[in-house]
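The material for today's practical consists of a large collection of protein records. Read left to right, the backbone structure tokens trace the chain's path through space. An example says more than a description, so a record of this kind follows:
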Amino acid sequence: MTRKNYKLTIQYDGSDFHGWQMQAKGRTVQGDIEDAISVIYPGEKITLIGAGRTDAGVHALGQVAHISLPLKHTAAELQKALNGNLKHDVRIDMVEDADDDFHARFSATAREYEYHMVKHFSPVTRNHTTPLKWKVDRKLLIECADVLLGEHDFTSFCKVTAEVDHKLCIVHSAYWEETEEMLIFKVRANRFLQHMVRYFVGTILEVARVRYTLRDFKNLLNNEKTEAVVVRAPAQGLFLKQVIYD
């Protein structure tokens, strides 16, 4: 039977997931979607490839994945069938026909993340934001974000055991937005390392609350000797906003 490569755009609430990637134990986003596909294509070997792996508790507004399947449904029919077999905390926003050489991860040219912090704790948003517990210097928030721009070796801002060939990333944009209720960190780069955005946010906050200096932050970024250590922000405030393809 003729096969077709499909591109899926996905959003999910990561609160009850053990991350994106399939694991031996625990519910995962990849696992839920593959299970739903297996219902539609019984007996078919299912391999869903995501653009990136989000950690446990991290959310996505625009995760992307691809999969090759027998051509027996249109993209629209596949989307409807998938959503009919998924729980309410994960949804396929779009299914598109993709070229055979499209790869959700390797075809991507950039990713965007947002980190949401509320100025006052809310039980309503507790699974999707992190409370800002300290008074912070807004000027230092901006200065730290500016330092991230460009190409750097982000070894200090990556999980030590991350299995990657190198830790060079190009940060295209990084800035903070403020509303009456929230502080939002927005960052776009060609690639992200494991825990990278959470280390950005947690460590920038240490500078903005004047526990670290801007020089400490620059030393960490340049992998130079410093007594400062990176701090990881909680998972629930982080969103994969979108994956970009040229």
